[in-house]
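Human:
Take a look at this sequence-structure pair and walk me through the tokens.
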Amino acid sequence: MEDFLKNVTVFTHPLVVHKFTKMCDVNTGSKEFNELTKEITALMGYEALKDLKTKEVLVKGPVSDFMSPVVDEDFTIVPILRAGLGMVDGLRMLLPTAKVGHIGLYRDEETLEPHKYYFKLPVDVADGPVIIVDPALATGGSADAAIKFIKEAGCKDIRFMCILSSEVGLKLLYEKHPDVHIYTAKYAPGPLNEKGYIYTSFGDAGDRVCGTVSYKPQA
């Protein structure tokens, strides 16, 4: 295994890969794209959150009282705007009390460098795990910037979750942030195109989540 893949979890579950394929279809509209994004994120969340701390509580059951575990640790979801918003509900399905921060980044179309325009985190964000979410990890520039901002806020347990990742992006994050574990539904080896996009992808996730662009063939 390549070194840069050692801290990467790639999902091969049939339901995950099936839903990813549907996301990439140009005939998939915004509503269905959002639903698929949410469903894949929830499926990935079971693995990404499997080490949450628990505590035993007394349950008054219908037959008898007994001790049983409940989650005893808050986590924060931080979507990279705007596409990352499509992944938030998938994780909050698993734990509705999860907190949400936001990082607004836009990419310069010429330099491909990310620029911050919004940054807001819960006051106690450093007390638990932080999961940064963005549907696509292509050049890795936005993910790198987001992780830097989160670290500057004092967070230690940082995880990055995406639906599609490139070799370029994974190598960059491994070089800059080897302490951050990455969860991805699909890994695309090889180079990016001239615009910094992954060839085997669903296009611009932000446009598809928000419905601002349709990839459906024109009649």
